[in-house]
Write a structure and sequence with these properties.
Blueprint lengths: L15 H13 L1 H14 L4 H15 L7 H5 L6 H10 L4 H8 E2 L2 E2 L5 E2 L2 E2 L7 H5 L12 H8 L3 H13 L5 H4 L2 H12 L1
Helix pairs in contact: 3-9, 5-6
Bound molecules: iron/sulfur cluster (SF4) (2 copies).
Length: 191
């Protein structure tokens, strides 16, 4: 995992600097990640969904979404009409007023229900929010393009995807575990 200056006892402290580092690292690592995606398509183990689900649960336990909120800030979200109504109601706005203010070409960004790093409608949040970054859903292998998008945004997806390379014994993992990754870890330790 990318180490963080604030990391203690296995927990990963997420802050703006950490989010920037995983973004830069993921974007710079695009060729490796596409290579791994292609390998997974052909050679992923039969229990890949279980492996990914376990990694997701591991990193959900190590990362506090309340320190992050990056998905709610960065993603362009396509909510269903009932979901839009729920968010509008929570903000005491009519659906028409809400759409006029916050929906552009069918998409919401950033989500106006986000207050600081917290979802103000957490208990009633839409399904797409509940399952993000979608690592615990079936058919991981058929959703890899979406996963690659999410690793630059979400620390849970990022760390799970990096560890997955070792977990499934990707043959190029050792060779490709790049100098850049080590540089980022060192930078984090030194900061
Ligand atoms: S509804 Fe809540 S969880 Fe969903 S994007 Fe908005 S702030 Fe985030
Ligand atoms: S799901 Fe990922 S991006 Fe969203 S708040 Fe949690 S760690 Fe951050």
């Amino acid at each position: 995992m990318v180490q963080n200056p604030g990391q203690q006892g296995g927990q990963i402290t997420v802050n703006a600097e950490y989010l920037q580092r995983i973004k830069v690292f993921s974007e710079g690592n695009e060729i490796e990640n596409c290579d791994f995606r292609a390998w997974l398509k052909n050679y992923a183990p039969d229990d890949i969904d279980d492996v990914v689900k376990a990694l997701s649960q591991k990193y959900f336990a190590l990362i506090d979404c309340k320190e992050c909120g990056n998905c709610c800030r960065v993603l362009e979200l396509e909510f269903t009409e009932p979901e839009l109504r729920t968010i509008a109601k929570s903000m005491e706005q009519s659906i028409d007023e809400f759409k006029k203010r916050f929906v552009v070409e069918g998409l919401v960004k950033p989500c106006p229900a986000l207050k600081g790093n917290l979802c103000s409608i957490y208990e009633g949040r839409p399904d797409v929010c509940r399952s993000y970054p979608h690592l615990e859903k079936p058919d991981f292998i058929f959703r890899l393009y979406g996963v690659l998008d999410n690793i630059a945004i979400c620390p849970i997806a990022f760390n799970a995807f990096e560890e997955l390379k070792a977990k499934v014994k990707w043959p190029k993992y050792r060779a490709r575990r790049s100098r850049r990754m080590r540089e980022i870890e060192t930078k984090g330790d030194e900061a």
